[in-house]
Amino acid sequence: MWSICKKELNQFFSNLTGYIAIILFLLINGIFLFVLSDSSIFEFGYASMDKFFELAPWILMFLLPAITMRSLSDEFKAGTFEILKTKPLSSWQIVWGKYFSILIVLLLAILPTIIYVVTIKVLSAQGGIDSGGILGSYIGLFLLVAVFAAIGLCCSGFTNNAVVAFLISSFSCLILYFGFSALSRLPFFANGLDYYVEMLGIDFHYRSMSRGVLDSRDLVYFISMIFVFLLTSVKNLHKK
Asked: Which end of the chain is more exposed for a tag (fewer CB within 10 A), N or C?
């Protein structure tokens, strides 16, 4: 498993893919949070990271599929999957190896954003911020990244075309993140079902954790989503 992880990381950082992903994530966040007046943290009036945690999912929704789209599709296209299956590796080990490599790249992209926290704390009038809320939001963001990574890896296994994998995974992330929330607003669900429909979406549980509350139901939801998509990836590899 770790040999697959190392191979993927070497592939990410042997060309510009990994570096571009990290730079783009930080650059887009920096522009929105510190340059544009409509979304600037400085214009918000409070020492808070809420703007970052609202913006990050929308960036990751399209950036992460760009990272994952070649994970399995290129193996099928180049014919290296057959060679990979001759190694003493199970399908689960292949999937876990590729999955952990994606998580490591995304963690390297998220870690530098701690500078935002330090900056806001230094510039705040009272010299303090809601550390508990920010910690809970970071945990929620990591779980969100973990789910998006599982979705992207799963979608990459359905085709040998990386562009198609990107489109499918971007659409899937968008629907699972915002689709159920939009669906719950329909008049048909106004009789009390709207709450339960919204609970099916990632956005509902991510917002819950962004308030700094670590609810076991949110953790179970994220872990279940990750397991379902990774299991689907493994089943797909068995068919291949």
From this structure: C
What is the largest distance, in Å, between two alpha-carbon atoms of the chain? 61
The DSSP code sequence of the chain is: -HHHHHHHHHHHHHSSHHHHHHHHHHHHHHIIIII-TTT-HHHH-SS--HHHHHHHHHHHHHHHHHHHTTTTHHHHHHTHHHHHHTSS--HHHHHHHHHHHHHHHHHHHHGGGHHHHHHHHHHSSSS---HHHHHHHHHHHHHHHHHHHHHHHHHHTT-S-HHHHHHHHHHHHHIIIIIHHHHTTSGGGTTTTHHHHHHTSHHHHHHHHHTT---HHHHHHHHHHHHHHHHHHHHHHHH-
pTM of the model as a whole: 0.87
Which amino acid, 102?
I
CA dist 33 and 55 (Å) reads 9
Rounded CA gap, 63 and 2, in Å?
24
C-alpha 111: how far from chain center: 14
Per-residue model confidence (pLDDT) at position 26: 85
pLDDT at 228: 93
